[in-house]
Amino acid sequence: MHRIWLIGLLLSLMAPLAASDVYTGEVPVSGQDEAARKVAMTEALKQVLVKVSGDPSAAQRAEVQAALANPEPLIQAFYYRQDIDRSGPTPALKLYYAANFEPRAINKLVSSSGLARWARERPTLMVWVVGDSGTDFLGSSQLAPLLRRGSERGIELKAALIGGEDAPSVIDVERGKVSSLRSVASRFGAPGVLAGRLYATADGVVGRFAYGDGEREESFEVRGSDSDSALRAVADETANRLAARYAFAAADSTPAQVSAVVRGLRSASDFARVYAYLESLSVVREIHLSTAAADSMSLDLTVAGGQERLRQILPMSDLLSVAGDSSDGAVVLDLR
Predict the structure, then answer these.
(1) Which residues pair with residue 322 across a beta bridge?
(2) Most buried pick, 16, 70, 123, 319, via CB within 10 A?
């Protein structure tokens, strides 16, 4: 085989995938035998196609069926890990198979299938959920179905700490007052908020939620047969709405020249930090320093999707804010 396999049979209690691992798929398996692994490879690829495109039906495209039938050539490495499943009455160990797929091969497959591409930079949303009682927040273990489905969909969901001076009111969370909650979330490095309440009904569980990604706020309602399925539906609906905003068709991702002016730089380390951050963005193809002054610098960038895409991605970080445009059309950025 021409590719290099890095096979780790990691049976310790490793951390679950971060949502930012959009090219890694992780699925539960019954064992480590070859038959189970072959099924898991296909399921992991399906998950990655959904993560990268933002389209929950991505695996149904005719153009990806050949790859799903033989996903091995796309895999760089795979491993197993165990985690504690707390969904039942008694905690139990659960085995997972994870596969790291080759990013360029996945991007090519997604583009050739006519699917949109969702950049790996995605807003972190801090999560608060009020239970059916209307008086208490759900804890991390109760939020596990929501957090795991969020990871499977490629979105960054972070369970808020319950209690303490910074804890918001139950009323603010229940009513989805995103603007009131954002200041709390930002202190913990999350630019966005996902908040709402679950309601038990005769037909199951209803969830009424609101989210804000730093740029816009939206409300929605989901239903499930029980709390766990309702929470998974919350993650799916949030991912669908984020993808509708941030995923771009190939035709809208053509590289374009963008000029930017960064202000408020206080030291040489600020210059280096901002330059390295912009260079690291998945949509930035090239970056060059044009001019520099005591507290600012001008940059010429080549950005997939152009200025619009850059403006969307920057608010997801707490490093730079978009201040507007200069007289010559350059994007003006301020160091926070």
Answers:
(1) 333
(2) 123
Stretch(es) of the chain classified as CATH 3.30.160.100: 124-246
The pair of structure tokens assigned to 31 is 């064992």
Domain 254-335 sits in CATH 3.30.70: yes
pTM value is 0.86
Rounded to whole angstroms, how far apart are CA atoms 198 and 232? 12
Work out the end-to-end distance of the chain between its first and last CA atoms, rounded to an integer number of angstroms. 49
Q: What is the pLDDT of residues 259-317, one digit of tens each?
A: 999 999 999 999 999 999 999 999 999 999 999 999 999 999 999 999 999 998 998 88
Q: Is the pLDDT of residue 88 over 80?
A: no
Give CATH 3.30.70 domain extents, the chain.
Answer: 254-335
- For residue 99, CA distances in Å to 2, 45, 77 come to 18, 8, 6
Which tokens sit at 126? 């801090």
Domain 124-246 architecture? 2-Layer Sandwich (3.30)
Read off φ and ψ for residue 125, nearest 5 degrees: -110, 125
